[in-house]
Design brief:
mainly alpha, single chain, 3 domains
């Protein structure tokens, strides 16, 4: 028997399922129920599970389940994973529904024309009007609801959001600097100890200059990653990300997108891959694909080690300004990208609806937050032990051979590769070493840090960077080819054509922006 959970109507076409399980969020029923009439029109066997039902009751709302089943013709059960409630009943309902003929599973067919989204929304609204009883907020408003009212205030909400985001980034870069320095000192001690106890040769060079320096340079930024994902998890689990979407709804509509597009973009600051996957919840297929294409403009955590390395070295007096500018440039270019794409035949459409339903504002659970942090930390450590480790070994080998002399770098294989591609990047102020670093960043941006550590013995202040070339380099890192995992996710979620489009337009945009900044900056400096 095949049980399937779907996120958008496109996943229904061309498939025959034993039964479709649609899990609704009880704290935002109208939004999460938009898919229900689509599934009914596809004549699929469907079971609705009202998830987190205990939270609905906690807000003094109530849902008439028998009436809901009568109006939709769909078996409906109440579940709460947190309290282990209703799971066995839901599983039993799935088996019973799968064994029935389709005509008995849902007697209502073809409610509206497939393309009439407004009619679908009206149907959902009508069903909930008859089944959902709202709480009397004026009489039962809790402390969290009062906080929620302030956070979504049209005048206070946006400044509060900016202040929260600034605090998140301040903690990530400032508080995280202390454990980062401790790890860096530990790596330096390991390298010094290994030098003192190992004979000179290719193996000691590989271990110390390749593995320890290359991997250690990336590992040092682990505290920053932990801090960033701690705050992202708090915002997501508490429901504050949904409030940010609500606050940004008017701004996103000016671009031509729905306010829900802001949530995947915000998640992109952590990692582009889950952010692209989060866009599945956007019902409109054009907005869904365009949001996925906008996500790579967001400065993911993989770029963070590169940013911090250059900011700490070349912009010590302007750390906050440079960091904020990089994030702001990515956001502004993503908005400009959306404005342009909305005027093409692929994404042109009428104005969509607004965000008018929010999940309950709740206190995050420590276990859930810890699980989210560990998931991202484990992914970061896995990348260090695989991609970064092998990249460090390969870069050291290309630097060491064929002369087998690290002092003869100009005649190494690495120099040959760098000099072959450097003519394309010289107008941006990059030499062959910088070009090599960008090449190693294709599979994972963190590999740029390990390559820099190997090429410059852990000290890029001795390289040929100036503040202008450093900023040009950072802009290129911000905009060029997303990591391989991001492209693979785009290919799976949006299609092969849009994945290749992202590869080429990101490279072209990165080159153009870095070229303009470097050339204009060079004229002003001279």
């Amino acid at each position: 028997m095949q049980f399937v959970e779907v996120h958008n109507p496109d996943e229904l076409h061309g498939h025959a399922f034993d039964v479709v399980l649609q899990v609704l969020d009880s704290t935002r029923l109208e939004e999460s129920m938009q898919l229900t009439p689509h599934i009914i029109d596809e004549e699929e066997k469907i079971v609705i599970a009202i998830g987190r039902y205990d939270l609905l009751l906690a807000t003094d709302h109530s849902l008439d389940i028998p009436k809901l089943e009568e109006l939709t013709g769909v078996p409906t059960c109440r579940v709460s994973v947190r309290k282990n409630y209703g799971l066995e009943e839901c599983l039993r309902t799935l088996h019973e529904t799968a064994g029935r003929p389709a005509s008995q599973a849902h007697p209502i067919y073809h409610l509206r024309d497939q393309d009439d989204e407004e009619a679908y929304r009206a149907y959902v609204h009508g069903v909930l009007t008859q089944t959902l009883t709202h709480a009397k907020h004026d009489q039962h408003r809790t402390r969290l609801e009062k906080i929620d009212k302030v956070l979504t205030n049209p005048w206070l909400g946006f400044p509060i959001m900016l202040a929260i985001l600034y605090f998140v980034f301040w903690c990530t870069f400032t508080v995280g600097a202390y454990p980062q320095e401790w790890i860096a000192q530990g790596i330096e001690w390991l390298c010094t100890t290994a030098h003192a106890h190992m004979a000179d040769g290719w193996f000691s060079g590989l271990l110390i200059d390749g593995v320890l320096q290359g991997v250690g340079a990336v590992l040092a930024f682990l505290p920053n990653i932990i801090i960033l994902f701690f705050f992202i998890s708090l915002m997501e689990d508490s429901g504050y990300m949904a409030r940010e979407a609500y606050i940004m709804d008017a701004v996103m509509h000016r671009v031509g997108l729905h306010g829900r597009s802001f949530v995947p973009m915000l998640m992109g600051f952590g990692c582009n891959v889950p952010a692209i996957m989060a866009a599945r919840d956007i019902q409109n297929p054009k907005d869904r694909v365009l949001t996925m294409l906008m996500v790579p403009f967001m400065s993911c955590s993989a770029r963070l080690p590169v940013y911090m390395l250059f900011v700490d070295t070349f912009f010590k007096d302007y750390k906050a300004l440079v960091m904020i500018s990089l994030y702001a440039i990515g956001i502004c270019l993503s908005v400009l990208f959306a404005v342009v794409m909305k005027r093409t035949r692929w994404f042109r459409q009428e104005r969509d609806d607004t965000v008018n339903e929010l999940p309950a504002f709740r206190l995050p659970r420590a276990r859930t937050t810890a699980a989210h942090i560990w998931e991202r930390v484990a992914d970061y450590l896995q990348k260090i032990c695989t991609v970064i480790l092998w990249a460090s070994i390969i870069i050291w080998a290309l630097e060491y051979f064929p002369s087998q002399d690290l002092n003869d770098l100009e005649n190494s294989y690495l120099a040959m590769i760098g000099k072959a591609v450097s003519p394309v990047l010289e107008p941006l102020g990059f030499d062959w070493k910088m070009s090599v670093c960008l090449l190693t960043g294709l599979p994972a941006k963190e590999a740029i840090v390990s390559t820099l550590a190997i090429l410059y013995d852990g000290d890029i202040s001795t390289a040929g960077f100036t503040p202008l070339t450093a900023f040009s380099f950072l802009l290129f890192v911000l905009l060029y080819f997303p990591c391989v995992a991001t492209i693979a996710t785009l290919r799976r979620e949006a299609g092969k054509a849009w994945a290749w489009f992202t590869v080429f337009h990101s490279l072209a945009l990165a080159w153009l922006v870095s070229f303009v900044v470097y050339q204009i900056g060079a004229l002003l400096v001279n």
